[in-house]
Amino acid sequence: MRIEVYDPELCCTSGVCGSAPDPTLIRVEEMLEEAKAGGATVARYQMSRHATAFTKNPTVYRTLLESGTASLPMVAIDGVVRWVGRYPTAAELQKRLGAGQEA
Known about the structure:
Blueprint: E1 2-7, H1 23-37, E2 41-46, H2 51-56, H3 58-67, E3 74-77, E4 80-84, H4 90-102
Parallel strand pairs: 1-2
Antiparallel strand pairs: 1-3, 3-4
Helix pairs in contact: 1-4
């Protein structure tokens, strides 16, 4: 399984930095680390650092053209965008990862 996270601009690659990091970003980072430990490959992209990644996935590119950066974050599993405008919950991600392993 490959998880790709197309993040809005963050202060660092995970967004978990500074004296008061956003609790949502802490949860997302923990969730992604758990997915990695379970064998998933995880990539996180920000436009200022990885602009071409946003153009390589047609759904991400089209959504950005239509809705702008308000559509971020987007999360794709194996190239298919599953969440737009929000991060998944741990339960949602686990459900998708489990479904992919059964297929």
